[in-house]
Amino acid sequence: MNRPRKLLTQNREMKAIGVWNWTLPAWAGRLPDGRTYNTCPSAGICAQACYARHGTYTWPVVKAKHEANLTFLLDDPTGWENTMRTELAAPKFRGGWIRIHDSGDFFTDSYLTAWLRICHARPDTKFYCYTKEVDRFRRLVEPDPPRNFLWVYSYGGTQDNALDPDVDRVADVFPRQRRDRRRRMEFPR
């Protein structure tokens, strides 16, 4: 298996604010070995306009990195989790922020649960994400969230009707379509 050398990366903008990133391929596709995937099972209209399906995300080296991340995760979930925990043990991550997914989402219960274990194992690192997996988060995260994990529900998915902008932390990538929704974020993008 071709495992990524490093799991966490930084682009120029994230580096400027000290944020590291973990990413997967956006939405649905086919891996080089022929397997199909859908890393955004609750995507709605956002799948049509997704920034992570255009531009630099389509460059061969970037696409290959995202696919290698997903392949490692799918083929060896325990090895992926252990590797992520080990990488996060480096001093440079203490007190820092990790953005989980600038593309992709928590596509299974077991994958989200692995991230929750990682958050608990690294209490000196802060984690955040945007997600359309409302039901999954209501069941697995909201009852007892790790103190170092923040999330924003993102409009544009199939579970928008379950969101309450007066209660939930929400972001709206299509604000002209929903002028009555508020965008509330309390941590770096």
UniProtKB/TrEMBL annotation:
Record domain Gene product: where: 7-180
Organism: Kibdelosporangium aridum
High-level lineage: Bacteria, Bacillati, Actinomycetota, Actinomycetes, Pseudonocardiales
Pfam families: GP88
InterPro entries: Gp88
Protein name in the entry: Gene product 88 domain-containing protein
